[in-house]
Specification:
Blueprint lengths: L4 E7 L8 E9 L2 E6 L9 E4 L4 H43 L3 H7 L4 H36 L8 H8 L3 H52 L7 H9 L9 E4 L14 E7 L4 H16 L4 E5 L6 H10 L9 E4 L10 H5 L9 E10 L6 H25 L9 E4 H6 L10 H11 L3 E12 L5 H28 L4 H36 L7 H16 L9 H23 L18 H20 L7 H12 L8 H19 L3 H18 L9
Parallel strand pairs: 5-6, 5-8, 6-7, 9-11
Antiparallel strand pairs: 1-2, 1-4, 2-3, 8-10, 9-10
Helix pairs in contact: 3-19, 4-5, 5-10, 5-14, 5-15, 12-13, 13-14, 13-16, 14-16, 14-19, 15-16, 16-20, 19-20
Amino acid sequence: MAPKFEWWAKGNNNNTRKGTPVVVKMENPNNWSMVELESPSHDDFLVRTHEKSRNKNARQLTWVLLLKAHRAAGCLTSLGSALFALGTAVRRRIAAGRTDIEISSSGVGSLQKQNHTKKSKLFYSCLKVFLWLSLILLGFEIAAYFKGWSFGTSKLQLQFIFNKGFFDWVYTRWVLLRVEYLAPPLQFLANGCIVLFLVQSLDRLILCLGCFWIRFKKIKPVPKPDSISDLESGDNGAFLPMVYQQSIAAVCNLDWPKGKILIQILDDSDDPITQSLIKEEVHKWQKLGARIVYRHRVNREGYKAGNLKSAMNCSYVKDYEFVAIFDADFQPLPDFLKKTIPHFKDNEEIGLVQARWSFVNKEENLLTRLQNINLAFHFEVEQQVNSVFLNFFGFNGTAGVWRIKALEDSGGWLERTTVEDMDIAVRAHLHGWKFVFLNDVECQCELPESYEAYRKQQHRWHSGPMQLFRLCLPAVIKSKISIGKKFNLIFLFFLLRKLILPFYSFTLFCIILPMTMFVPEAELPAWVVCYIPATMSFLNILPAPKSFPFIVPYLLFENTMSVTKFNAMVSGLFQLGSAYEWVVTKKSGRSSEGDLAALVEKDEKTTKHQRGVSAPETEAEKKAEKTKRKKKKHNRIYMKELSLAFLLLTAATRSLLSAQGIHFYFLLFQGISFLLVGLDLIGEQVE
């Protein structure tokens, strides 16, 4: 029998009288009937169920199960498609055969670059030696495992094995060698790295506690109230100092009196099309009343530092009090100056006000998501805590406002390193200037989307500080700042966060851990391999809570990047050729820089259309097209990362023989991470 229901409801539509209840009887789901009854004594909805059908519940359960099965099938289909696409990308990458070693060798020109290439090949050769040794040792261990030899073999058992045969004699010698000669120094090195790891983890924990305290107490830099009221009043006698900018596009719309701001466009590019388009853009804003000038350098000596130094030497700079610096892909909001400049008023000790970065493409791919986690921690924790408690942090090179007097007092921009922003910040700190970081003032920019661009950026960011440390250490020791500030600058700022961090990350997790699988007499505790790294990753991800699902990829990727950071740290510390290599970080143009790229493309199409399809190309255009083809982006294979991937996977296989669960899973997933990065599958994929 079909279920039968009655609903009591207050009728208030056109088919019933006002206040008349309606009874709806459902004998069949497709057949509805309606009858009018006497008005009840109340107006509430009443539902009365005369019969409950088990068949209906069964049908509902069936539909729910079918829906879940459909979703599961969709997930499996998506997973299958993703695996197929991954396999296709791997085949295409291997078939292309473009490696970072070959590309760096083909582009070598100067003696300095040749030396860099030799050092890079030497490092890669060492990794290959480790890999081949691990494969040979794995063969030995597998053979020993099937012979039934345990890893805790006593000397009496070894003597018995020694008398059996040649293979047994070789393996016995190997066991005695690792017990007496290899295990002690390896364990000593492991213990040293563990101590460094614990010290760095403690530093990270203290920074997080400082950030928590700032949030709990709601501490934030607040400018003087009268400076804000002056800006809002717009009075000529108000605090409206002379400011000049060093960027384009968004800075022309900054909310500041036109007579008190000068925008300076600094260009040292060698592309004539780009230069002409920038000039045209500057001319357009000049017609609209903006005070904007264009400066182009013929040579790129000193790179960014040389460009800034050249600009600061202009005669008109002496009329200005502050300088705001923006890279080409940064877009400050119109109220940027009104939120930063007031912090300088009536506080002559403030030399720098730094704003936070935000990213337009942080969800573009996995690589940008992982970068966002790192930079969110850098700004919200490191920069903010150091600003509040020490009044010092590293200048980020852009989205900041400097007091020009502080720059001049510190010696101005120097071209001696590739981190001119950190250089000027350290020298200003030694001269007693204080810094302010504004976590609530953001400046939009862009993250590199390809692994190649990110890798080169990280190399420059980690080799430059080591160059600077060697150069400024005597000045830090001789300076008049307090002992506590000297300790913070030398030990925490440089040694712990710039040298020790990449050293132990690479040495402990990429070299010592796999070696302990083949020399089991030296061991790493499970809490070093798993628990503390997981806790530190959790702390790192707190400033970006939406990225919590990526905590495991973040942990693995940070260890993967340690090979690049370690290589950069060594090259900067010992002044190798790659330490002085300046490579502009390639962006995809999703912020202000993209407009310029679009204009370039549009200009090229218009020129070709005006000439006509049949018109022959000029020699210059042929050369430009040839250069464009040469500069075409490609995904490539990174041999160092690939070698480490096979080394870690070999060690993971070896760990199965000794049933080390946590070590096995860590080595397995870390090896897969190195494999994906080595095949350039983590960032932008170029068809």
